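Entry: TldD/PmbA family protein
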Amino acid sequence: MSHDALNQFETLCQWLRHALVAGEDFSLGYSAERSDFVRFNRARVRQAGRVQQASLDLQLIRDGRHAEQQLSLSGEPQVDRLRLEEALQQLRAILPLLPPDPYLQFNREPWQSHSLQLEPLPDSATVVEQVAREAGDLDLVGFYAAGPVSRGFASSSGAFGWHQASSFNLDWSLFHGNGQALKAQYAGQQWQAEGFATRLRQAREQLTYLGLPTRSLAPGEYRAYLAPAALQEVLELLGWGGFSAQALAEKDSPLQRLHSGEAALSPLVHLHEQVSGSLLPGFSSEGYPRQDLQLIRAGQPGAQLVSARSAAEYGLPANGASPWEAPSALAMTAGELAQEDLLERLGTGLYIGNLWYLNYSDRPAARITGMTRFASFWVEDGRIQAPLASMRFDDSLYALLGSRLEALTRERELSLSTSTYHQRHNGSTLLPGALLGGLTLTL
């Protein structure tokens, strides 16, 4: 796939450069995947298939106007060249009808980027056999996706980027006979049989606690541990506007008070947009090189995510952020709390495996609300006593990631995006767990 796909993209780019007339510019994005998909129910295959697809995003620019069209590729060079030619003609007809865009910013730097992370993955049949063997009679319901994903970018300025990375993602739930469930994920670029077996063994141990009588709690503040999956939900919500140059410029960021110096987070908090070593390409869909950015440094504000449009509107240097200016490869620095000491340090309180339905209850104050989900437990004296009934929480990020944050775990968990909307996505998080001195439950 690597050589053929790259040749296909380069050939189309070369044709497009020669097809331009004076005054025209273009940008051309490429997306492709070859993915195996397997759906499990009761640890047995219920659906399996393979998807191979490729598409182009063509943007034509002239006199401050721009128009864009997406087209699917067939893999047949002559057919795809004709499709690209037809798209070019259609965009030429549309452009004169559009008004100039005052915030259009076309990068004229002729940068180059090339990255291959094509780690060998096991045949999907091997994975299926291991899942069935290790799960045994467990009621495992899940979804496995694996294979290489390709991204490319080229422009009339001479910029050219190529990125291919293979990865796998097994996202599953285990159901107890009483209907309760817990959720887990095993993902990465190198499938390790022992790694999956360990992750499943941990989930199996938690499943036994779901058979105990459910504990309901009165509203109030409780000590709490947020597992990496729960912390991920909090940080993904924070990512929508928290680090956005546009949101900060318009005074609409949930971290406005942090950036104005009115509030701070815990010095334990170091957050990075960690492009290097991730599955992200080293360039954005808007044609700017990406770089590693420190978003939070010891609880203090760091870099903002600046898209091309925000760069033009607010006079900032673009740094390869996506158009929606949310982190795509978020990593949090680990702490000193060993996993084996976690329950003892928690003492009495909440072990929260997952959260869901998160939203802002007071965006300017960075207050968020949501529900506990799946494997969440009541802990007393360092021992799990009962599964928790679903509860709603409402609290400030300046407390959860600030004054009440006691420790972060040494171990971090990699989570890859499970989104397959139009195509497999390559976003990720790498997060520790968080021990909190308090979390406010409301009902």
